[in-house]
Amino acid sequence: MLRMMTIASACFLCISGCQSYSTGLKQSVDRTDETVAISTLHSIAVAERTYSVSNEGRYASLTQLAEAGYLDSRFASDRPLKDYVLTMKIDSDSDPGFSCAADPRDGRAGRHFLLDSRSGEIHVNDTQPASTTDPAIQ
Predict the structure, then answer these.
(1) How far apart are CA 78 and CA 46, in angstroms?
(2) Contact at 8 Å (CB) between 76 and 84?
(3) In the beta sheet, which residues pair with residue 98?
(4) What pLDDT digit, counting tens, does each position of 27-63 carry?
(5) Domain of residue 106, residue span
(6) Count of structural domains within the chain
């Protein structure tokens, strides 16, 4: 009886340990995906500033930035990032600015980010698309 209880306890600990390991591994992958999204938004900010200097203060779409050589060619595609969707919004010429959202693809875990050209900050929201009222990442 004692032997069976010991075996059962060992199995439980093994299963618990495996679940804990799997959960930690998934969280690590999610954080890596988020880091890629944040890094990409920083690259987009630099590309937009550079493009704007050369184009009378106007901003460009991701495709235009890629075609002009300010971003690499994957940004001319529909899926430049594997696990995040990028959505660029260009403001009018009379009030130039842009924002770029990075949201997890359907079914993926992760935080939502928004690059705002007016503040120069990247805002983050844990549960829904980020807005300029959300806190900026540090």
Answers:
(1) 21
(2) no
(3) 90
(4) 454 467 899 999 999 999 999 999 999 999 999 999 9
(5) 28-125
(6) 1
